[in-house]
Amino acid sequence: MFLKSVLYNETRNFCLGKAEPTTNTKKNLFDPEAVFVTDLTDRNEIFKTVSQKLYDLGYVKEDFLGDIIGREDKYPTGISMRPLSRKLPDVAVPHTEGDYVSTQLIVPIALRNSATFNNMVNPTEKLKVKFLFLILNNDPDMHSTILAKIMDFLAGTSVDDLNELFNSDSNEEIYDFLETNFETEK
After folding, report:
1. Which residue intervals define the domain PTS EIIA type-2 in the entry (predicted)?
2. Pick from 23, 71, 84, 104: most CB atoms within 10 A?
């Protein structure tokens, strides 16, 4: 499938999860305190706001923000969902080097309005992204595994279910959906 081939070749309104925190293990790639819904539309402002919360939680290090912005400029992470369905909005999977993070986690970020990201496959193409899977990974041997899990999730989830997830305005619903439907086993 196309996504698998991609893998291998005025307000700052952020909703933060209110569910009870869980211990992050290799099996649990999501934390209810690290699920975001925002009105922001500027990529760097999204990164700035999310980075501060992740820093406060102890998940990222001080230089994380600069590195995630620099890496996204150099190596875009936008993914066109058109090959799966023209009914799906585009997504992005931003990530950085393990030196800048303290854990292994996928941070879902739902955007109420699109933000512009460049396409991972065709970096000159601009995509209107509605959902981010921000990867935090302090184990370099696991990076491709986590990315593959995201790609498998996108390719293996129905268009209707993905649209429901991507358009959700509830941190709890996003967290519950991913905890239930995202394959975390190796």
Report:
1. 27-181
2. 104
